[in-house]
Design a protein that fits this description.
It is a single chain. The chain is rod-shaped. It is mostly helical. The mean pLDDT is 81.
């Protein structure tokens, strides 16, 4: 189609919509994609969607990291509690043996 060959956004659609319409015998359906008429808005939306997706991935990674740190802190606290209990038991045993 001549309109496609002269179109400034041909690299985006590659003439696909009108080509398919012509190939299937729908000459009146060979309409351009919305991008041609709303290019600035469509690119802005595409950018915002991609940026939002990246922000979500970053947030997920941060949440995972926080969970790992929380688990590490719990393990450290449990280890400290266990060590403290052992030390108290040993101290009590020593004190008890002195009383004998």
């Amino acid at each position: 189609m001549k309109e496609c060959r002269e179109c400034q956004i041909l690299p985006i659609c590659m003439g696909g919509c009108p080509y398919i319409a012509l190939k299937e015998g729908m000459k009146d359906k060979g309409e351009c994609i919305d991008w041609k008429y709303n290019l600035k808005e469509m690119l802005s939306l595409y950018y915002l969607k991609k940026k939002r997706r990246e922000e979500i991935e970053i947030a997920k990674a941060l949440i995972q990291r926080v969970e790992i740190l929380r688990n590490d802190m719990r393990e450290d606290r449990d280890d400290q509690s266990s060590t403290l209990r052992k030390a108290k038991n040993e101290s009590a045993e020593i004190d008890h043996s002195k009383l004998k």
